[in-house]
Amino acid sequence: MAEEVSSSSTTSPAASATAPLGSSVISLVNRLQDIFARVGSQSTIDLPQVAVVGSQSSGKSSVLEALVGRDFLPRGNDICTRRPLVLQLVQTKRKPDAPDDEYGEFLHLPGRKFHDFSDIRREIQAETDREAGGNKGVSDKQIRLKIFSPNVLDITLVDLPGITKVPVGDQPSDIEARIRTMIMSYIKTPTCLILAVTPANSDLANSDALQMAGIADPDGEFLLPCV
């Protein structure tokens, strides 16, 4: 009996090192989604994810960078997010007596690791221009980026283009309707949490992000307001 109690109360190092079941599922489904995206398949798997929604220059990039703990997203006064950025955060183990190994990998550049987060920003901008052009055009084709770090949680975030009302550059006259349709295609799924970002100096009653979240989720069950 004593041996049975001892063995049941002792946790083996292998068991303690095992990742939680949820992390394993997230990793598996993310890999399947990457495969579908690579081959251009229309098949999708609805993995719980957080869609970041807001108007242009509402502070979405700052919120995402705060979650990652690094600056890596394009910035500017005009529309910066012109393609959906699927951001897969992967928590790695911290090595004792060693600096944190943080890096990013793009699906369209397999095998290449970006340890300099300024290079990640430049590649996001370059890949955006390759698909949407260099004059403020918008595309619904995703950019898929994984960031590996011991300082993040296993989670999938989607940075969506900001809602804009006045077309600029190569944007069509119905740019607002197109962006709203793109956003709705993500936030209407029941597995999506809506992170609605609104500037603190604006009237919440007129928040585009909250209005869209209210349409997709009238009961507010999946809404995460952020001011």
From TrEMBL:
Keyword field contains Nucleotide-binding: yes
A GO molecular-function annotation: GTPase activity
This protein's record includes keyword Nucleotide-binding: yes
UniProt keyword terms in alphabetical order: GTP-binding, Nucleotide-binding
Ranges of residues in domain Dynamin-type G: 44-227
InterPro entries referenced in this protein's UniProt entry, alphabetically: Dynamin, Dynamin_GTPase, Dynamin_GTPase_CS, Dynamin_N, G_DYNAMIN_dom, P-loop_NTPase
GO biological process: mitochondrial fission; peroxisome fission
Residues passing through the membrane, by range: none
Signal peptide range in chain numbering: none
GO cellular component entries: membrane; microtubule; mitochondrion; peroxisome
Family, similarity comment: Belongs to the TRAFAC class dynamin-like GTPase superfamily. Dynamin/Fzo/YdjA family.
Protein name: Dynamin-type G domain-containing protein
